[in-house]
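It is worth pausing here to work through a concrete case rather than discussing structure prediction in the abstract. The textbook approach is simple: state the sequence, then state the predicted structure, then interpret. We follow exactly that order.
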Amino acid sequence: MTFETPVSNLPPVPCPRCEQAMRPATVKTAIWRGERLFVVEDIPAQICDSCMEQFYDEEITDLLRRLTEEGFSSLQPKTEIAVPIFSLDGLIRGAACAPAGAFPEDQIYADY
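Step two, the predicted structure:
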C-alpha cells in the first residue's frame, strides 16, 4: 500500500482497532475477483500508523463494492502492470501443512 497524506486541520480520529490516532491519506489497494487482480489507487481513507489498518467512509466502501461486483467494467484502467506470482508451496512446515490442532502454534516454520 502507498499512502499520500492530504492536508487537513481536523482533529485525529481514533482507530477502531487499536484506538491510536488515524490520519487522512490517499491509498492504493488490491482487490481479487475470481482469478483477476485489480489495483485501485487514489482512494481517500483514514489510516492508522500504529496497526496499519485503513478505513474508508461509507460512500467509498459502497463505490469499491459496486466496482468489484461489476468487475470494474465501467472504468478504463489508468495503466497496467505485470505482477510476479510466488508460491510458498514446500517452504512451510508445521501447522499450515497439517490438520488443525496437529501442532502447537509455536511449531510453525518457514524456510527462507
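Step three, interpretation. The helical segments are 58-69. The two ends are 23 Å apart (CA to CA).
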